[in-house]
Amino acid sequence: MSRYAPIRISIFLTILLGYMQTAVAQSTPNAPAYTPSYFADKERAKKLAAHFPLVEQLYKAYAEKNHFPGYAFGIVLDGKLVYSGSGGFTDIDKKIPASTRSMFRIASMSKSFTAMAILQLRDQGKLQLDNPVYQYIPEMKSQALTKDAQEITIRHLLTHSAGFPEDNPWGDRQLADTDKQLIELLNQKISFSNAPGIAYEYSNLGFALLGYIIQQVTGMPYSTYIEKNIWQTLGMAQASWEYSKVAPPLFANGYRWINNTWIKETPLHDGIWGAMGGMITSVESFSKYVAFHQQAWPVRNDAEAGPLKRSSLREMHQPWRLASVNANYRYPSGRGCPQTAAYAYGLRYTEDCEGRKTIGHSGGLPGFGSNWMILPEYGIGLIFFGNVTYAPTSMANVAVMDTLLRLSGLQPMLLPPSKVLTDRRDALVRLLPEWDGAANTGIFAENFFEDYYTSQLREEARNIYSAAGRILKVGDVVPENQLRGYFIQEGEKANIRISFTLTPETPARIQEYHIALEKK
Fold first, then answer.
1. Which of 4, 105, 269, 350 is least enclosed by beta carbons within 10 angstroms?
2. Contact, 126 vs 118, CB < 8 A?
3. Which residues share a beta bridge with 372?
């Protein structure tokens, strides 16, 4: 599978407009309902659509520059496949054009399905993430770099921290190995690069072991379990592990670009290592999986739907193991923006200097390259498949993501403030600037008047209100979370920003408070 590392972008952003085969506004009816009511901008879909022709050309130019025989892409907004397209061929000799229903092998993008299956079994009480692997695979007992190392756990496998060496591209060639061959490998003893639990190192072997654990716990092949408990639940009709079961006109043949020509790769059969990278699917089908991940955010009281609880999905998305820090990262525009990368559960996590978080995964095998990502706070997801060996698809998706956000002005999710935040705002507005009787209101925590002296609070507030002039409007609370936020009072001459933090008590009380003057 493709090495997990900070992404470097090199792509032309000035290109001619034109169109290729495109499907627009396809819904994902079998995915859980996702309501974009958490976004203040009601024109977000229209703003995004205005730049879809440019998106089309970005993917086309990138595919041509990197010698993709064929490709397909999709954009998922608020749980719907709103734009998709394709180009080139899935079979060069027969001139079969790629489409959004063409089925590409998505390689390491498969890992999150294996991780999701593990979390399903954990939620059902059939395993625990901190259980030692030898409990399910006895051959792993006491296998580690040193005698003082801890036993490898399921969580270590999920986060690439079991101490196995990075195994690209060797691991890719094990895809069709049988259960017996995997156990023989373990019996020969594994060579380790680190002790478990102390470092990130990408391991396909780790996810092959997770596939084997699924089989040990459920009594069925991991592939059958995932098909029944994830694909079918999400309505992913176009999904397979074994290429020979895919109708030939739909299967995207893989190629390698050598000496200015394409050489057809021999496809790999499914085996126990498929849990790390064997899945085959289409953009249309995979978009339902993307939509399912999107609907995990924000936290809320809605009814649950789909193959995994929202809380467990969000657990999958967390940065469990630091992978890298890239202080020199640059976006396609050339804008420098340091970025941190981490590994979640079968997913990668990045956060940039602007606080933008992306969650997803790349994939690479002989003949294929793929990438998907979501930005949970923006409600947007991107998919890109190609059928050339280790196609660097992640680079294109980052370019498209950054371009769309910059040109459309898409804004992140705006969560409604909790009732207690709004109540405390109203109480502060009544008290300010004089603070008369504040200690008797019951809205302040026991620490408050020991940390803030009323006389100083009053003097500070009077000076700020005098400078702001007559108050024209009190704004809504902007929540940082359900117990911390700020609001703006608009004055004739200047604005006033008031921020506060509440305690964990019930009812929650104000423990911290700040007031400042802001220019209009």
1. 269
2. no
3. 361, 383
Following DSSP, what letter does each residue of 436-469 receive, concatenated? TTGGGSS-B-TTHHHHS-HHHHHHHHHHHHHHH-
Is 340 in contact with 320 (CB distance < 8 Å)? Answer: no
Q: Looking at the chain, how many residues does it have?
A: 520
How far apart, in whole angstroms, are the C-alpha atoms of residue 373 and residue 377? 12
Backbone angles phi, psi at 113, to 5 degrees: -70, -40
Beta bridge partners of 232: none
Q: How does the average pLDDT of the chain come out, rounded?
A: 93
Buried b (16+ CB within 10 A) or exposed e, 229-264: bbbebbebebbbbbbeebeeebbbbbbbeeeeebee
Dist. CA 63–CA 51, nearest whole Å? 19
β-partners of residue 362 are 371
In SS3 terms, 148-183 reads as CCCCCEHHHHHCCCCCCCCCCCHHHHHCCCCHHHHH
- 213, 215, 159, 163: which is closest to 192 by C-alpha? 163
pLDDT tens per residue, range 359-405: 999 999 999 999 999 999 999 999 999 999 999 999 999 999 999 99
Distances (CA, A) of 2 to 61, 265, 282, 390, 397: 22, 17, 19, 7, 15
Nearest alpha carbon to residue 106 among 294, 371, 293, 292: 371
Cβ–Cβ < 8 Å for 268, 365: yes
Model pLDDT, residue 245: 97
Q: Which domains does the chain have, with CATH numbers?
A: 1-411 (3.40.710.10), 419-519 (3.10.450)
